[in-house]
Amino acid sequence: MENNHQSEFVGLSSRDAFGKQLLKLAKDDERIVALTADLASSTRLVEFKQAYPERMFNFGIAEQDMMGASAGFALTGKIPFVCTFAAFASMRACEQARTDIAYNNLPVRICASHGGIGLAAGGSTHHALEDLSIFRTMAGMTVLVPADGVQAAALVRAIMNLPGPSYLRLSRPTEPTIYTEDKEFPIGKADVLKEGKDLTIIAIGGMVGYTLKAIESLEAEGYSVGLINAYSLKPFDRETIRDAARNTQAILTVEEHNIIGGLGSATAEVLAEEGISVKFRRHGILDHFTTSAPYEDLIHHYKLDAEGIASVGRELLNY
Fold first, then answer.
1. Structural domain boundaries enclosing 114
2. Between the CA of residue 132 and those of 97, 194, 208, 268, what are the distances in Å?
């Protein structure tokens, strides 16, 4: 889907775009069913429930049962979308996601909102800093992290016909806008937004937008900085990462996740296995539990806003 008109998803958070796109898909495909664990409003399923009450299932606070039931729906030919918070999908229902869904290679779409530290005041119990690592290690699991609402809608469309399981991480806060026109994003690829000779920053989710702003500051200081949106964390675009590392002096990864097991680790694996020697740093949550505060204060505290990302990039370049 490519056109010259502004997308209807511009300015929406990825979770809002998800709800809107799912509703559009459900209109044309009666096989689609939505499952949630008492979070219809937070996961943007209220309009779906109003339009298709017979295809909406609320399991209450029983995420494990919801995962198991989604496997059953998939086995009967339905197209299940499982929706809850990222922290609950990845940890409270981890065994069921692995054994009921991934082990059987079932086409269940786990669409988890409030990824990262988006549920800001909720604190560590509701922050999802391990989810990408957990789902990335499940055999056959596709893991996607959209940068904004337009990309989120495109990735919802992309997972519709996947033959196996997928995990789509969505954000509660509205991400900075990256894309304004509808386009498709192939699974297994990354999107090179900008090329740079001194530093290439690889980012996912809302961090893509904050990184774009950080690059403005770095380039004002005379640095040449590139940016890759690695929205497909698994399968990972090894070729694009490899090429960037060979054509730049330093690589920095930025993610709203523990620096262990997510984007930084995936990138490090490529660099090590390809035998590429380059300055490299992982930036994200530095392997500790987070605190509670408004989202803007949190990303500033953890150096995940534009100012913080620029400072980390500057340190790496001058190391």
1. 14-169
2. 13, 25, 16, 15
H-assigned helices in 165-294: 207-220, 238-246, 263-273
Q: Let me know if residue 25 belongs to a domain.
A: yes
DSSP string, 102-156: ITTT---EEEEES-BT-SGGG-TTT-BSSHHHHHHTSTT-EEE--SSHHHHHHHH
221 contacts: CB under 8 Å, gap ≥ 6: 314
What pTM was estimated for this model as a whole? Answer: 0.97
Distances 28 to 2, 22, 25, 31, 32 between C-alpha atoms, Å = 20, 10, 6, 9, 9
Quote the CA–CA distance of 266 and 30 in Å, as a whole number.
37
What is the reported pLDDT for 3? 52
Asked if 2 and 184 count as a contact pair (C-beta separation under 8 A), the reply is: yes
Which amino acid, one-letter code, is at 177?
A: T
Helices and strands counted in the chain (H then E): 12, 12
Domains of the chain: total = 2
CATH number, domain containing residue 280: 3.40.50.920
Q: What is the pLDDT of residues 205-222, one digit of tens each?
A: 999 999 999 999 999 999
* Residues linked to residue 234 through DSSP beta bridges, in sequence order: 143
Distant-in-sequence, close-in-space partners of 294: CB < 8 Å, separation ≥ 6: 120, 121
